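Example record

Each entry pairs one chain with its bound ligand, protoporphyrin IX containing FE.
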Amino acid sequence: MTAQVGQAESALRTAIDGRCAFQVTRDAADAALSAELARWLAPEGTDVGVGPEGVVDPLGLARLVVQEIRVVGQHFLTPERLAALAAVRDRYDGRDPYLDSFLECVLDKHDGRYWNRTYLSIPVLDVILGENPLLPSGLAALLAADIVRYELCAAHRRTPVSPLGRPDARTLRTRLRHSLRFMNAHLGSAVSDDLLGAIARDPEADLPALLLDLPPALAAAGDWLELSMQPVSTVHDEYFFIRVLQAHEMAFAGMCWRTRDTIAALRDGQLDAADRLLAQVVTFMDRNASLFRIVATLRYEAFHTFREFTDGASAVQSETYKRFEGLCGRPPSARLTSPAFESVPDVRGEVVSGQDTLSDAYRDAALADPGSAQVTRIAERLRALEASHHRWKATHVTLATRMLGDARGSGYTAGVGYLSQWVDHRLFWQLPA
Ligand code: HEM
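Structure tokens for the complex follow.
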């Protein structure tokens, strides 16, 4: 770990001595995308084959859209641009899952269905997971790696240090240190070292190029992973903020399937397997603390500048966070009727349909085999999970208090008051403490 931070710092020093990079102007981005859209929207009847071998390529179009978004911010795409992209969607819907998911996100504000899931490009990440033999935790690590790449690239380009631009060296070091820690924990040190070495060698390389030398499942994620980033603004810090929230979604997705497997193992009487899986869930929950340490480097002014354009998209709509909570135990009715679950109707539906939970499966296992060493060990894991989840909530409130004060949340809750109300609510409230 220390060696990795040293490597990142030496890349940073190289970056500060480095050359200035090519940057796309607003006019160039606009012209390139307009020309590409004209090809996609050639008069009906023109033969427009889709795909790398065809006349038009979804990856090429998405790259140009993202390039423009980086220059203007997704919130500022013109109505004409959005109308053209909506026309592409109407004409090519169902031809390519990546393109469909990408346009679902770009057009969220245009369609009036802007929310956390599309702000974070989760539909694109879901297609990446579906199309590659990649675990959500592996994807979470790559997202953290991309924070390192993005920050070192900005330093290498010597973009201005300012509240809305790149951070000072001290803030940058803290941001890198915690991103590396998270990446290393999920990826393992060998792959992390390779990745960091590649970033250090060429801080201006794009993500697909950096991932090329990694195992194929990781490398394959690169193209669309780079395009799963649609910040509403051009504020520097919004980039890493989005990546952190995406990594959080992926980490909780990994915790959900492990929790389901734990429940199944308990039901099958496979207590050792249940214990092993639960230990992994606790480890994942502990690692999520790094995400707040990364976000603690978010600058107040930057946050309040981009937040003006994220109203309606809030982590209160996080489906994986609520799905995990519901799998741990059925929440009490006060929670099910609070913004926490009212903001995620699909997950609420799963919960009220009477799905099996960790609380119920543990209680039955304990009744079947009272006082056994395995049951005692599992009870300890549940306690550790509860404690880790409680720490997560307490840190979240501290951060939200610092950044928001009395302001309301972007999910239209009372903000800090809403969060504080649930800090002491337990995941396993139906089990004895
Ligand atoms: C500047 C940083 C942050 C602030 C100011 C903040 C603030 C808030 C607020 C006010 C809410 C309540 C819902 C709302 O009204 O929108 C909320 C919910 C939530 N936030 Fe954050 N948050 C921040 C960072 C994060 C990060 C980094 C994560 C994940 C790593 C996160 C995860 C969540 C989750 C999962 C909820 C839903 C909690 C529940 O349903 O009870 N937040 N946040």
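The chain has a mean pLDDT of 91.
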